[in-house]
Amino acid sequence: MSQQATFELWIREYRSVIFKIIRVYADTAADRDDLFQEVSFQIYRSIPSFKGQSAVTTWLYRVSLNTAIKWIRKEKKHRNQVDLEDTQHLLHDTGEKDERLDWLYDEISKMNDADKSLTLLLLEGMSYKEMAEITGLNPNNIGVKIHRIKNELIRKSENYSY
């Protein structure tokens, strides 16, 4: 299969994985568009290096997360003020609007890069082993971090009214 065909297939099949990452790392619609372009470019460019030693989703998460983290660091350096554009518009339609989901993504976006990555991977249903492959962290360390993240989200959710 050609690089272009592989790229189109992966974007079509795994777009929800990519959009979850983008939603957490980019606040505005314009930023989400920019980050999607950057992630797409990096995925396309990196396809020849995919050796099939991990699942496609694991590899896509790794490329997407690394690209998002680099992008946000670069953006923070170049911005002097916060863009107050309405962030209600999402890159993908999730059907009915769920305020709890919006709250969760808002809380995830406030986390440090490592915790954001782990939370997204957890929400995707990945095992600690898969998370370790993507992040390079020790699976035991991941377990401790996830336990702390869950406790913090539970604590914060107590102040959220449904």
Any overview of this molecule?
- The chain is an all-alpha fold and 162 residues long.
- The chain has a single domain (3-157), classed as Rna Polymerase Sigma Factor, Chain: A, CATH 1.10.1740.
- Helices cover 70% and strands 0% of the residues.
- It contains seven helices and no strands.
- The termini are far apart.
- Mean pLDDT is 83; it is low at 80-94.
Give a quick rundown of the structure:
By secondary structure, the protein is mainly alpha-helical.
Blueprint (SSEs and pairs):
Layout lengths: L2 H23 L3 H18 L9 H23 L20 H11 L3 H11 L4 H8 L3 H19 L5
Helix pairs in contact: 1-2, 1-3, 2-3, 3-6, 5-7, 6-7
| CATH level-4 homologous superfamily | RNA polymerase sigma factor, region 2, helix turn helix motif
Beta content comes to under 5%
> How many structural domains in the coordinates?
1
Query: Could you give the order of the helices and strands?
Result: HHHHHHH
Q: How would you state the average pLDDT, rounded?
A: 83
* Secondary-structure class: mainly alpha
Count of alpha/pi helices: 7
CATH C-level class is: Mainly Alpha
The CATH architecture would be Orthogonal Bundle
Poorly predicted regions are 80-94
